[in-house]
Design goal:
8% strand; two-stranded antiparallel sheet; mainly alpha
């Protein structure tokens, strides 16, 4: 399965690189860009403007997704710690149960009282 993923990644990457190379070689015209509050005019090749816009969009989208996932990552860490604590309690209670089953005559009456587990 991993090999299939690598092959698929190579196919997608190769196709993307061929598309980009074709786009760059065909679109060699220059374009003038200006941003409203500034008076500076920038002249660049159109392929550079388009690819820079796509790259900026991908970067901005990735940052939005990363910031959106931060609360989920924090919750995951919190639940992982809670699960580890529950596993430790299960192990402790399993040991106590095994001890009581090994020596039923040695059980004191106060050992049978329910205990409150520490949180």
């Amino acid at each position: 399965m991993r090999m299939l993923g690598h092959i698929l990644w190579l196919i997608v990457s190769g196709t993307s690189l061929l598309f980009i190379a074709s786009f760059v070689s065909v679109n060699t015209q220059t374009v003038s860009l200006s941003l409203w509050p500034f008076s500076t005019i920038i002249t660049a090749k159109i392929w550079l403007v388009v690819l820079a816009s796509i790259g900026f969009g991908l970067l901005a989208g990735g940052l939005v997704l990363w910031f959106a996932s931060l609360p989920l990552q924090a919750r995951s860490r919190r639940l992982t710690k809670k699960l580890a604590k529950a596993d430790a309690q299960i192990d402790l209670l399993s040991e106590q149960l095994a001890d009581t089953q090994r020596h039923p005559d040695d059980i004191a009456t106060d050992d049978l009282a329910p205990r409150r587990l520490a949180r």
